[in-house]
């Protein structure tokens, strides 16, 4: 005869069910709290982006900057002239402005700068796209006529030669001062790179040894824009992923902001560069979409918990 199967005490069964119930309730509460917090965080990000977009729009309406002054200057006094959108004025900025936070007040401001191109330092930033086509962003430092300071300018985009990726076009080697119009950006376009790819194959010591422009009326250096007929090694030395660490003679000369050129040089031959820059997008709609998804998931978890823990059991007992 088979031995009788021992029955589980009703108290033990009830205790196990109660433990599972409280465990499921705790997990559900954590899931509700997490999804609700993530939805709220996305709303905060959307509010931040809206505020940033408002600041960008307001700065674009301020008077255009026509010089970066090396001497202390009261920028608040200049901001009071914002009602005249066609006026230009001088704004003070120093190489250590990043540490003081003053750079953030200049980013996205319009500029109209007069200076000399330092062609010997032109860099072709590789793997940059415009309208879905691969090519280079051309960046050249500009030495300002008024203050002698140097600022990097992202001049435009040029297509890559499909036959020879190290082949770069020659640009007009202007030796006279030019007027560059654009807007202030925190830095020239950069991409993530590893190891030696972080900087172009441009030797800073060699670049620093080349002649510098010390005055607007001084004899200009010989143009050294990359030529299509140059040897492969020389052409490749102008191509890189990001800007090199170039020594311009005095470290205090290089400004801590850059300029995104939006129009060709005034009264100069065309350089053939495209400037169809991607419009600034705050991405607010994306954050609202993510917030909706998180809140929807939070609501779904709540509905499922109520259904399987309260509604469905009662329907089975009826």
Write out key terms for the chains shown.
6 helices; single chain; 318 residues; alpha/beta; elongated
Numbering strands along the chain, what is their spatial order in the largest sheet? 3-5-6-9-7
Count of individual beta strands: 9
pLDDT averaged over residues:
75
Radius of gyration equals: 30 Å
Helix count, DSSP H or I runs of 4 or more residues: 6
The succession of helices and strands, N to C, reads HEHEHEEEEEHHEEH
Question: What would your notes on this structure say?
Answer:
33% of the residues lie in helices and 21% in strands. It is α/β, with parallel strands linked by helices. The strands form two sheets. The chain has a five-stranded mixed β-barrel with strand order 3-5-6-9-7. Strands 1-2 form a two-stranded parallel sheet. Strand 1, helix 2 (75-79) and strand 2 form a beta-alpha-beta unit. It is elongated, with a radius of gyration of 30 Å. The two termini are 41 Å apart.
Concise account of the structure shown:
With 318 residues, the chain is an alpha/beta fold. Helix content is 33%, strand content 21%. Residues 70-90, 94-101 and 196-236 have low confidence and may be disordered.
Layout of strands and helices, then pairs:
Layout: H1 10-60, E1 64-69, H2 75-79, E2 88-92, H3 97-100, E3 110-117, E4 123-130, E5 133-144, E6 150-159, E7 178-185, H4 204-208, H5 232-236, E8 239-240, E9 254-261, H6 284-317
Parallel strand pairs: 1-2, 4-8, 6-9
Antiparallel strand pairs: 3-5, 3-7, 4-5, 5-6, 7-9
């Amino acid at each position: 005869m088979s031995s009788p199967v021992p029955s589980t005490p009703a108290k033990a069964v009830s205790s196990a069910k109660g433990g599972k119930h409280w465990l499921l309730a705790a997990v559900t509460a954590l899931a509700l709290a997490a999804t609700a917090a993530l939805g709220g965080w996305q709303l905060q990000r959307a509010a931040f982006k809206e505020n940033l977009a408002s600041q960008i729009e307001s700065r674009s309406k301020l008077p255009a900057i026509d010089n970066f002054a090396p001497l202390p200057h009261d920028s608040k006094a200049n901001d009071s002239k914002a009602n005249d959108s066609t006026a230009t004025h001088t704004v003070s900025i120093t190489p250590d402005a990043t540490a003081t936070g003053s750079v953030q007040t200049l980013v996205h401001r319009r500029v109209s700068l007069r200076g000399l191109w330092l062609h010997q330092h032109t860099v072709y930033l590789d793997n940059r796209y415009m309208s879905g086509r691969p090519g280079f962003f051309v960046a050249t430092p500009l030495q300002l006529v008024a203050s002698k300071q140097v600022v990097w300018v992202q001049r435009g985009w040029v297509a890559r030669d499909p036959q020879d990726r190290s082949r770069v076009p020659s640009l007009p080697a202007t030796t006279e001062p030019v007027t560059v119009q654009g807007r202030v950006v925190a830095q020239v376009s950069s991409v993530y790179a590893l190891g030696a790819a972080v900087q172009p194959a441009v030797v800073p010591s060699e670049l620093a040894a080349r002649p510098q422009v010390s005055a607007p009326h001084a004899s200009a250096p010989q143009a050294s824009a990359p030529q299509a007929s140059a040897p492969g090694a020389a052409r490749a030395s102008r191509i890189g992923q990001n800007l090199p660490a170039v020594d311009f003679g005095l470290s205090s000369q290089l400004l801590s902001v850059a300029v995104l050129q939006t129009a060709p040089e005034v009264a100069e031959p065309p350089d053939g560069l495209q400037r169809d820059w991607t419009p600034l997008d705050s991405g607010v709609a994306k954050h609202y979409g993510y917030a909706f998804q998180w809140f929807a998931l939070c609501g779904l978890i709540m509905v499922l918990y109520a259904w399987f823990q309260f509604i469905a059991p009662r329907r089975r007992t009826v």
